[in-house]
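anyone seen this seq b4? input:
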Amino acid sequence: MTAREEVLARIRAALGTGATGTGPRPDGEVPRGYRTGADSDPPALVGLLTERLRDYGTSIRRCAPGGIPAAVSQALAERGARRVVVPAGLDLTSVTGATLIADDDLSPGALDAVDGVITTAALAIAETGTIVLDGGPGQGRRALTLVPDYHLCILQAGQIVAIVPQALSRLDPARPQTWISGPSATSDIELDRVQGVHGPRTLEVILVGS
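predicted toks r here
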C-alpha cells in the first residue's frame, strides 16, 4: 500500500464510508457532545455580557425601554458625533444634537466621512461577549458597521442568549451575518495591538431593559 492509499484509507475509515467511499456511517449520526443549552437567567446573562464587553474595551449604557432617544443623544454628544448614519427600520426621530443620515446606498467614501453609525442587533451571546447582526430591520448592510469609525449598537436585554449553539438555533444561516466581539482590533508580529483596522475603532452598546 502506498502512502497515498494509506491516507485515503484512514480518511474513509474516519468517515465510516467503507472501502468504496460511498454509503452512510454504520453507527448513524455523528455524536455531538457539546453544550446546546445553558442557564438563561436574564440578570445573569446581562451581567456576563456586560463583563465580557467591558473586557473587550466596549462602553455600555443601560436605559429603560422608553429612554432610548435620550440615551442615544447623550452617547452622541459625549462622542462629539454630529453626522451619523441610521439604517432603514430604526426610528430615532426624537434624537437631538446630531444629524441622522438615512443610508441610501451610501458609498464607502461617504460612510468614511460620517462620525458614526447607529444600529440594532439580531442577538448577543453572553459567554463570548459577541453581538450578531444579520441585516434585519435597523441593522442595515454590512458596510455600515465596517467603514465608520464609531458604532453605537442598541441591544434589547431579551436578545441575549447564553452560548453560541443557542445563538445558532435562532439565526437564519442564509442571512449575511456579522459577529462582533468588541471594537475591531489586530496585532502585528510584535504583538502591538491596533484598533480600527478592519472595522470601527470604537464600539458602544446601549442595553435596553428594566
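Residues 42-55 form the longest helix (14 residues). The chain has a mean pLDDT of 89. kinda curious what u guys think
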